Amino acid sequence: MSGLGVLLKKELKEQLRSYRLLIVCAVFILFGLATPLLVKYLPELIKVAGEDVKIQMPAPTAVQALQEYADSMIQIGVLVAVLVTMGAIARERELGTAAMTLTKPVGRGTFIVAKLLAASTTFAIAIAAGAVACYFYTIILFGEANAAGFLASNLLMVLFFAVCLSITLLCSSFFKSQLAAGGVALVIIVVLALISAIPWIGPYMPGKLTGWGMALVAGSSGSAWRSFGVSLALIILCVVLSWQTLQRQEV
Fold this sequence. Notes:
Elements: H1 4-17, H2 20-50, H3 62-85, H4 90-95, H5 97-102, H6 108-142, H7 147-174, H8 178-195, H9 208-217, H10 225-247
Helix pairs in contact: 1-6, 2-3, 2-6, 3-6, 3-7, 3-8, 3-9, 6-7, 6-10, 7-8, 7-9, 7-10
């Protein structure tokens, strides 16, 4: 991993210069502010829209607001992760900047790891910003909320997005087209989500991390350590496959 620090610094600067960090943070903060507001006033809006029709809805709670935020961010965050990462390698190969970087004394594995760490850092910062916005706005609207459970939920979200980023990086190393890389990555992530619904294999899928996080927000003691372990293994596998793919290709 010679040169990892230098490459990581370069990639982090690129996250700033390309406004990826700003864009991802803006998306998470927007949903962090909007979700508690929507949960709080949606029942009232439905009543107004229904006019004389009586619709019985339970009173919204802080737990519901925090869970809805996590659910919304998983759905929109996957798309954002694919969009901001699908050209990480494919575009550099197209422009020739990957070849320039790899002529220096750095390995292709280091090149991959630096990109994954930089992208994961961007999402970790964005998740933290969105979580803070959501949590404090939830307190304002609903009162006390489960801080420890919400923190754990967001840490699990970081791991989930790291899986999505590593899959997209793998596709970006395999395809020369950014669109092809993004499309295939999105299909793989959706397929993994669908497999999560299968009882005998679902507990091992990364998608179970989100369910575990929501359970922690609600104060449940359930866990999904098998999913946690498989997620880490998937990240490592994607990095190794990306490295092997680049080893066999001209950049």
